[in-house]
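Look at one record.

>
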Amino acid sequence: MKKKSELFFSAILVPLDFLMIVLAGLAAYFLRFQSLLVEIRPIIYEIPFKEYLGIVLILAGIWLVIFALSGLYAIGSRRFIDEASQVFLACSAGVMLVIIIIFLRRELFSSRFIILAAWILSIIFVLLGRLIIRAIQYYLLKKGVGVHRVVIIGQDKTARQIVSEFYKKPILGFRPVAQFRSFDEKTKKELVELIKNGRVDEIIQADPEVPKEETLHLIDFAEEHHIIFKYTTDLFEIKARNIEVNTNLGIPILEIKRTPLDGWGRIFKRIFDVIGALVALVVFSPLMILVACAIKLDSSGPIFFAYKRIGEKGKPFTFIKFRSMKHNTHYLRYDEEFRKQNKDLRKGTPMIKLKNDSRITRVGKFIRRTSIDELPQFFCVLRGTMSLVGPRPHEPEEVARYKKHHKKVLTIKPGITGLAQISGRSDLTFEEEVRLDTYYIENWSLKLDLQILFKTPFVVLLKSGQAL
């Protein structure tokens, strides 16, 4: 009954989402033609409503595919905050697709207001529709409709926590009907009676310390009586959220995912990076031209400084910055005598950071202090060797001195800014930097990226560097 109920509510979301997306598109259209908005910004080109409606219906169908690929129709319960995050990402991806289509086919409408309004309204309308479905589902679950009746095996802390969660959160759709200390002969007989009376849908082995033999017997029992079997484990408990079960080989294989960016997150992040880098290059292009002129006037040498740094999976790539040092002096950072004269602030770590570096030019001091020297790295983002947000890339000579746990930062693409950069910048020790980058890698989300990007200019300008 529970599975059928979940399937029903997942299936009904498809036409509901379609309706809400269409309504959002229509609402955006009619808002644009309100007299107040027309007075503020006159309409240059008016697309006929019939033609517009046809476009909206087609795009709504495409959006449903994006929603499906984003996991919004997966069977099972999830927290509303997680669902809202998925809806935001899916709607954003849908709008990005619309922008690309408009760019390629000029005959479509060109109203930026309609696009922006449709994006915002689609998120609101879709979430509103899903909230209504949740309310209906919650009401039915409280009445016992679609509830999954569960037997818990185990009475330790884990078992008590599971039972407590089921009672506190009826929206999960589970109702404990019995709890046993272990799966012995007495328990087996009582379970058989419960099953005969139709009171059990699922058995959960909630004791991580149960002997393997007992668990295997319980699995056989569940299969014999066509009961769903689940089990918990404290193995790698701290990383449980990054474990994925694969049964393609006929046996359950538990994969510890290094980062949420292993799957669809990587695609969303790449789309976000490309759009963000293009916007940044347009916005900062006047400043970049001024800086280029200042560098040429201040000292001889090229405008840009390009050299190798280590990126994702330990692969080298060409790293670009505005030149902030005297020409052909970069190699001096590895000269022992020069480092003694300029004091290496990170001596004893893989990193090299010199105090009062005599190689830096007058313009270089300013663009380093304001991080303007990093702006050309947006080209690296477009090339796909860097991301807007991620661990900072280090030089091959520095990476060669990494300890084993330091190599975690090479799991993903390096970034222009990152959690370490907004949490203290150069005041952090190397170990603190690695710890923050590791946290980012293991807990990536688009929300975290947006937080980091939002805080970066304030940290640069105000030198605040407080942690999120």
